[in-house]
Specification:
The chain is an alpha/beta fold. It is built from 12 helices and 8 strands. It is about 50% helix and about 15% strand.
């Protein structure tokens, strides 16, 4: 089955994703049916394990949404296990050098292109589709490297030249920390680093990614206008919080109005 996410990345078409930190299939079903192209299970900052991730993947697939995993670290074991569990894309954090990017690609690919091991797993229907999966997986797994350190910005040209890197995803918060301006996303150094990132992605023909943590009518169009095509919108916990806050705020306002004497209104 063609990976619609990887196809969009290679064509540099806009692809919209969700971000998952709550490890329950129900939330994944809701997000998939909302119309996201892909959804990323966050194994770096969330509390989700491999078995729960596989259940979330099932829910995403049922809704026609490509399942992606952000591995906790650039590690062969994590990469192999996430792919075996059915991840169709990997977001690999803190890739600062071309060597680290090449290592991520190598572990995501079967021989002869890489070093991923063969075995029966969920990804190949526990062996029922072993041959077909082994033949096509190298072309159907998206490898996305995260650029989130000043060292990575300095090495952008080398990182983006690595064969098999399908997209680069900037991490502005960690980037701001490495620049000594933690959380100051509008600091001139952070903005300059993002502009260099976008320019390098454009020059190398690599899709540029960004997580718009709290999407609104201004920051999403701005991201698109700047050239980002791989865009994660919000998080499940943000959607839950914002929806809950709006509902309670509206109810409290109605409560106050209903209990205020007529003459005081």
């Amino acid at each position: 089955m063609k990976n619609t996410l990887r196809e969009a990345l290679l064509a540099r078409r806009v692809s919209l994703g969700a971000w998952i930190q709550v490890g329950h299939p129900a939330g994944a079903e809701v997000l998939a049916r909302a119309g996201f192209d892909w959804a990323c299970v966050d194994l770096e900052h969330g509390v989700i394990g491999i078995e729960t991730m596989a259940d979330v993947f099932r829910a995403l697939e049922a809704g026609g949404c490509e399942p992606v995993a952000r591995v906790p670290t650039n590690d062969p074991v994590w990469i192999h296990r996430c792919l075996d569990a059915g991840a169709r894309g990997l977001i690999v954090p803190m890739v600062n050098t071309a060597q680290q990017a090449a290592a991520a690609v190598r572990e995501a690919k079967f021989p002869p292109q890489g070093a991923r091991g063969f075995g029966y797993a969920r990804a190949n229907a526990y062996g029922a589709d072993f041959a077909a999966y082994a033949e096509t997986a190298n072309d159907e797994v998206a490898v996305i490297v995260q650029i989130e350190h000043r060292e990575a910005i300095a090495n952008l040209d080398a990182i983006l030249s690595v064969d098999g890197v399908d997209a680069a995803f900037i991490g502005p918060y960690d980037l701001s920390g490495s620049l000594g301006v933690v959380g100051q996303l509008n600091h001139p150094e952070v903005i300059a680093a993002q502009e260099r990132f976008l320019a390098a992605c454009s020059a190398h023909g690599v899709a540029a990614g960004l997580h718009v943590v709290e999407p609104d009518d201004e920051n999403v169009p701005a991201a698109l206008a700047r050239g980002y095509t791989l865009i994660a919108l919000g998080l499940d916990v943000v959607f839950l919080r914002e929806g809950a806050v709006r509902a309670v705020r509206a109810a409290r306002e109605q409560q106050r109005e209903s209990t205020t004497p007529e003459e005081d209104r």
